[in-house]
Amino acid sequence: MDDITDLAARAGRALQAKGWLLATAESCTGGGIAQAVTEIPGSSEWFDCGFVTYSTASKTELLDVSAALLAQHGAVSEEIAAAMAEGALANSNAHVALSTTGIAGPGGAVPGKPVGTVCFGWSAGGATQTERLVFAGDRQAVRRQTVAHALQGLLRLLEQA
């Protein structure tokens, strides 16, 4: 079992123990987190849905992310990651949501946001946590590290809840 599959299985067990459902809101990972969790047999008991909101329009339309917030902070920001996670919760039956938005490369870098910049959001129980990291490597490596880190953050949140 690889690290991501192990993380997804551990998250599934923790979610099931709480009787919680997970929703994902993904941009730079393109559904990679949803794929990882649905690789786990029985995930239908703890995975509600995934939103792949690659465009800014889809973030607004599907997750209720404010156009003003997008204009102010840009799609790759902790503020947008928080809004995405909160929007996933509001538009699903989930109890907890996680989100990713970032620049996987090879292009897309802007001043202050190099390739590899990823912002994360985790939301449950009316509280939202965010984090911004910069990963090294090519597009595939950045996306893989992002999936793993999102699941690690979910596990931390579930341990605290």
Q: What would the keywords be for this entry?
A:
Maf protein, 45% helix, alpha/beta, 161 residues, globular
Q: Topology of this structure?
A:
Elements: H1 3-18, E1 22-26, H2 32-38, E2 47-52, H3 56-63, H4 67-73, H5 78-90, E3 96-102, E4 117-124, E5 127-134, H6 139-160
Parallel strand pairs: 1-2, 1-3
Antiparallel strand pairs: 3-4, 4-5
Structure characterization notes:
- The chain has 161 residues and is an alpha/beta fold.
- It has a single domain (3-160), classed as Maf protein (Alpha-Beta Complex), CATH 3.90.950.20.
- 45% of the residues lie in helices and 21% in strands.
- The chain is built from 6 helices and 5 strands.
- It has helices at 3-18, 32-38, 56-63, 67-73, 78-90, 139-160; strands at 22-26, 47-52, 96-102, 117-124, 127-134.
- Strands 2-1-3-4-5 form a 5-stranded mixed sheet, with helices on both faces.
- A hairpin with a 2-residue loop joins strand 4 (117-124) and strand 5.
- Helix 1 (3-18) runs parallel beside helix 6 (139-160).
- The radius of gyration is 14 Å and the shape is globular.
- The two termini are 27 Å apart.
- The relative contact order is 0.19.
- The mean pLDDT is 97.
Concise account of the structure shown:
This protein has 161 residues and is of the alpha/beta class.
Structural class: alpha/beta
**How many helical stretches?**
6
Helical fraction: 40-55%
Q: Determine the CATH superfamily.
A: CinA-like
Strand order of the largest sheet: 2-1-3-4-5
Number of strand segments: 5
Query: Quaternary state, please?
Result: single chain
Overall 3D shape: globular
Radius of gyration: 14 Å
Query: What's the number of domains?
Result: 1
Low-confidence stretches: none
- Tell me the CATH architecture: Alpha-Beta Complex
The percent range for strand residues is 15-25%
Average pLDDT figure: 97
Element string (H = helix, E = strand): HEHEHHHEEEH
Largest sheet features: 5 strands, mixed
